[in-house]
Amino acid sequence: MATLDVRSLGKGKGGTIELDPAVFEVPVRPHLFHAEVRRQLAVRRAGTHSTKNRTAVSGGGAKPWKQKGTGRARQGTSRAPQWAGGGVVFGPVPRDHGHKLTKKMRRAALCAALSQRLAEGALTVVDELSLDAIKTRELVAKLASLGVGDRSVLIVIAGPDERVERSARNLPWASALRVEGLNVYDVLRHSHLVLTRTAVEAVQQRLGDAVEGASS
Q: What is the spatial distance between Cα 216 and Cα 50, in angstroms, rounded to a whole number?
Protein backbone atom coordinates (compact mmCIF):
# COMPACT_ATOMS: atom_id res chain seq x y z
CA MET A 1 0.00 0.00 0.00
CA ALA A 2 1.44 3.33 -1.10
CA THR A 3 1.77 6.16 1.37
CA LEU A 4 1.64 9.75 0.18
CA ASP A 5 2.52 12.93 2.03
CA VAL A 6 -0.39 15.29 2.55
CA ARG A 7 0.43 18.90 1.76
CA SER A 8 -0.84 21.63 4.03
CA LEU A 9 -1.87 25.04 2.74
CA GLY A 10 -1.87 26.47 6.23
CA LYS A 11 0.42 26.23 9.19
CA GLY A 12 1.62 22.83 10.36
CA LYS A 13 2.04 19.52 8.59
CA GLY A 14 -0.61 17.63 6.77
CA GLY A 15 0.67 14.18 7.70
CA THR A 16 0.40 11.18 5.40
CA ILE A 17 -2.35 9.16 3.80
CA GLU A 18 -2.44 5.52 2.75
CA LEU A 19 -3.70 4.89 -0.78
CA ASP A 20 -5.76 1.82 -1.58
CA PRO A 21 -3.76 -0.34 -4.04
CA ALA A 22 -7.02 -1.52 -5.62
CA VAL A 23 -7.60 2.08 -6.76
CA PHE A 24 -4.19 3.72 -7.10
CA GLU A 25 -1.89 0.78 -7.94
CA VAL A 26 -3.58 -1.13 -10.73
CA PRO A 27 -2.03 -2.00 -14.12
CA VAL A 28 -2.33 0.77 -16.71
CA ARG A 29 -4.24 -0.44 -19.75
CA PRO A 30 -4.38 2.11 -22.58
CA HIS A 31 -7.13 0.25 -24.43
CA LEU A 32 -9.47 0.96 -21.51
CA PHE A 33 -8.64 4.67 -21.78
CA HIS A 34 -9.55 4.61 -25.46
CA ALA A 35 -12.83 2.80 -24.88
CA GLU A 36 -13.97 5.02 -22.01
CA VAL A 37 -12.94 8.35 -23.58
CA ARG A 38 -14.62 7.34 -26.82
CA ARG A 39 -17.79 6.53 -24.88
CA GLN A 40 -17.73 9.85 -23.00
CA LEU A 41 -17.23 11.92 -26.14
CA ALA A 42 -19.96 9.99 -27.97
CA VAL A 43 -22.46 10.71 -25.19
CA ARG A 44 -21.66 14.42 -25.44
CA ARG A 45 -22.63 14.58 -29.12
CA ALA A 46 -25.91 16.42 -29.60
CA GLY A 47 -27.15 14.16 -32.40
CA THR A 48 -29.59 16.83 -33.60
CA HIS A 49 -28.52 16.74 -37.26
CA SER A 50 -31.54 16.27 -39.52
CA THR A 51 -32.65 16.46 -43.15
CA LYS A 52 -36.02 16.16 -44.88
CA ASN A 53 -36.90 13.32 -47.20
CA ARG A 54 -39.35 13.62 -50.06
CA THR A 55 -42.27 13.07 -47.70
CA ALA A 56 -41.29 15.91 -45.35
CA VAL A 57 -40.48 18.51 -48.02
CA SER A 58 -43.39 20.87 -48.67
CA GLY A 59 -44.95 21.26 -52.10
CA GLY A 60 -44.80 18.95 -55.08
CA GLY A 61 -48.39 17.80 -54.90
CA ALA A 62 -49.13 18.19 -58.59
CA LYS A 63 -47.47 16.23 -61.35
CA PRO A 64 -44.95 18.59 -63.10
CA TRP A 65 -46.17 17.64 -66.57
CA LYS A 66 -48.24 14.95 -68.21
CA GLN A 67 -46.88 11.45 -68.43
CA LYS A 68 -46.50 11.27 -72.24
CA GLY A 69 -46.13 13.49 -75.23
CA THR A 70 -43.65 16.09 -73.93
CA GLY A 71 -40.45 14.38 -74.97
CA ARG A 72 -39.12 14.69 -71.44
CA ALA A 73 -38.59 12.02 -68.82
CA ARG A 74 -41.60 11.09 -66.74
CA GLN A 75 -41.83 12.89 -63.40
CA GLY A 76 -44.27 12.27 -60.60
CA THR A 77 -43.37 15.13 -58.24
CA SER A 78 -41.05 18.11 -58.12
CA ARG A 79 -40.00 17.09 -54.60
CA ALA A 80 -38.16 13.99 -55.82
CA PRO A 81 -34.45 13.82 -54.87
CA GLN A 82 -33.22 14.69 -58.36
CA TRP A 83 -35.05 18.01 -58.31
CA ALA A 84 -33.66 21.20 -56.81
CA GLY A 85 -35.38 21.66 -53.48
CA GLY A 86 -36.34 18.03 -53.36
CA GLY A 87 -35.95 15.59 -50.52
CA VAL A 88 -32.65 14.07 -49.36
CA VAL A 89 -32.01 10.38 -49.80
CA PHE A 90 -30.68 8.54 -46.73
CA GLY A 91 -29.82 11.82 -44.97
CA PRO A 92 -28.89 12.08 -41.29
CA VAL A 93 -31.69 11.92 -38.75
CA PRO A 94 -31.72 12.82 -35.04
CA ARG A 95 -30.12 10.00 -33.05
CA ASP A 96 -28.28 9.19 -29.88
CA HIS A 97 -24.59 8.50 -30.55
CA GLY A 98 -23.96 7.09 -27.08
CA HIS A 99 -22.98 3.49 -26.56
CA LYS A 100 -22.65 1.37 -23.45
CA LEU A 101 -19.56 0.17 -21.64
CA THR A 102 -19.74 -2.20 -18.70
CA LYS A 103 -19.42 -0.71 -15.22
CA LYS A 104 -16.47 -2.97 -14.53
CA MET A 105 -14.54 -1.61 -17.52
CA ARG A 106 -15.40 2.00 -16.65
CA ARG A 107 -14.21 1.60 -13.07
CA ALA A 108 -11.06 -0.20 -14.24
CA ALA A 109 -10.31 2.65 -16.66
CA LEU A 110 -10.70 5.28 -13.92
CA CYS A 111 -8.51 3.34 -11.48
CA ALA A 112 -5.88 2.93 -14.20
CA ALA A 113 -5.93 6.67 -14.92
CA LEU A 114 -5.46 7.50 -11.24
CA SER A 115 -2.69 4.91 -10.96
CA GLN A 116 -0.90 6.42 -13.94
CA ARG A 117 -0.94 9.90 -12.42
CA LEU A 118 0.38 8.52 -9.12
CA ALA A 119 3.18 6.64 -10.89
CA GLU A 120 4.12 9.82 -12.75
CA GLY A 121 4.30 11.78 -9.50
CA ALA A 122 1.51 14.01 -10.78
CA LEU A 123 -0.88 13.49 -7.86
CA THR A 124 -0.97 15.86 -4.90
CA VAL A 125 -3.09 15.48 -1.78
CA VAL A 126 -3.86 18.50 0.41
CA ASP A 127 -5.38 18.50 3.86
CA GLU A 128 -8.06 20.93 2.74
CA LEU A 129 -8.67 23.47 0.01
CA SER A 130 -10.79 26.37 1.17
CA LEU A 131 -11.12 29.93 -0.09
CA ASP A 132 -12.26 33.03 1.77
CA ALA A 133 -14.31 34.16 -1.19
CA ILE A 134 -15.00 33.40 -4.84
CA LYS A 135 -11.64 34.69 -6.00
CA THR A 136 -9.68 33.22 -8.91
CA ARG A 137 -6.51 35.02 -7.84
CA GLU A 138 -6.61 33.35 -4.43
CA LEU A 139 -7.01 29.91 -5.99
CA VAL A 140 -4.10 30.55 -8.34
CA ALA A 141 -1.92 31.53 -5.38
CA LYS A 142 -2.80 28.33 -3.52
CA LEU A 143 -2.05 26.19 -6.56
CA ALA A 144 1.25 28.00 -7.03
CA SER A 145 2.20 27.22 -3.43
CA LEU A 146 1.69 23.56 -4.26
CA GLY A 147 3.99 23.85 -7.25
CA VAL A 148 1.30 23.15 -9.84
CA GLY A 149 0.48 26.69 -10.90
CA ASP A 150 2.26 26.37 -14.25
CA ARG A 151 0.52 23.27 -15.59
CA SER A 152 -2.98 22.02 -16.32
CA VAL A 153 -4.50 20.76 -13.10
CA LEU A 154 -7.68 18.97 -12.09
CA ILE A 155 -8.94 19.80 -8.62
CA VAL A 156 -11.05 17.08 -7.00
CA ILE A 157 -13.14 17.97 -3.96
CA ALA A 158 -15.35 15.75 -1.83
CA GLY A 159 -18.57 17.76 -2.06
CA PRO A 160 -20.12 21.02 -3.24
CA ASP A 161 -17.88 24.04 -2.73
CA GLU A 162 -19.12 27.06 -4.67
CA ARG A 163 -16.03 29.12 -3.89
CA VAL A 164 -13.57 26.61 -5.33
CA GLU A 165 -15.75 25.56 -8.26
CA ARG A 166 -16.55 29.10 -9.41
CA SER A 167 -13.01 30.35 -8.81
CA ALA A 168 -11.64 27.64 -11.11
CA ARG A 169 -14.16 28.45 -13.81
CA ASN A 170 -12.11 31.36 -15.19
CA LEU A 171 -8.90 29.33 -15.50
CA PRO A 172 -8.48 27.68 -18.92
CA TRP A 173 -5.84 25.34 -17.53
CA ALA A 174 -7.70 24.26 -14.39
CA SER A 175 -10.95 22.45 -13.62
CA ALA A 176 -12.72 21.57 -10.39
CA LEU A 177 -14.79 18.42 -10.03
CA ARG A 178 -16.62 16.72 -7.22
CA VAL A 179 -15.85 13.08 -6.49
CA GLU A 180 -19.09 11.86 -8.05
CA GLY A 181 -18.11 13.60 -11.30
CA LEU A 182 -14.56 12.25 -11.48
CA ASN A 183 -14.01 10.68 -14.89
CA VAL A 184 -11.29 9.29 -17.13
CA TYR A 185 -11.47 12.02 -19.79
CA ASP A 186 -10.81 14.87 -17.35
CA VAL A 187 -8.08 12.95 -15.52
CA LEU A 188 -6.22 12.31 -18.76
CA ARG A 189 -6.60 15.78 -20.24
CA HIS A 190 -5.00 17.40 -17.18
CA SER A 191 -1.35 16.76 -16.45
CA HIS A 192 -1.71 17.00 -12.65
CA LEU A 193 -4.29 16.05 -10.03
CA VAL A 194 -4.92 17.87 -6.74
CA LEU A 195 -7.21 16.05 -4.33
CA THR A 196 -8.26 16.94 -0.83
CA ARG A 197 -7.87 14.33 1.88
CA THR A 198 -11.62 13.84 2.13
CA ALA A 199 -11.82 13.51 -1.67
CA VAL A 200 -9.23 10.71 -1.63
CA GLU A 201 -11.20 8.89 1.05
CA ALA A 202 -14.41 9.30 -0.94
CA VAL A 203 -12.75 8.07 -4.15
CA GLN A 204 -11.35 5.02 -2.38
CA GLN A 205 -14.73 4.27 -0.85
CA ARG A 206 -16.50 4.65 -4.19
CA LEU A 207 -14.08 2.65 -6.32
CA GLY A 208 -12.64 0.32 -3.70
CA ASP A 209 -16.05 -0.99 -2.65
CA ALA A 210 -16.99 -1.48 -6.30
CA VAL A 211 -13.83 -3.52 -6.97
CA GLU A 212 -14.42 -5.68 -3.88
CA GLY A 213 -18.02 -6.26 -4.88
CA ALA A 214 -17.02 -7.29 -8.39
CA SER A 215 -14.39 -9.73 -7.15
CA SER A 216 -16.59 -11.41 -4.52
A: 47
Mark whether 127 and 205 lie in a shared domain: yes
**pTM for the structure as a whole:** 0.82
**In angstroms, rounded to a whole number, what is the distance separating the alpha carbons of residues 8 and 187?**
23
Tell me: the pLDDT tens digits for 28-74?
A: 999 999 999 999 999 999 999 999 999 999 998 899 999 999 999 99
- 58 and 151 in a single domain? The answer is no
Quick: pLDDT tens for 141-175.
999 988 887 789 999 999 999 999 999 999 999 99
Q: Which domain holds residue 57?
A: 51-91
Cα 191 → chain centroid: 15
Query: Are 147 and 141 in contact, with CB atoms under 8 Å apart?
Result: no
Q: Which of 158, 151, 159 is nearest to 121 (CA)?
A: 151
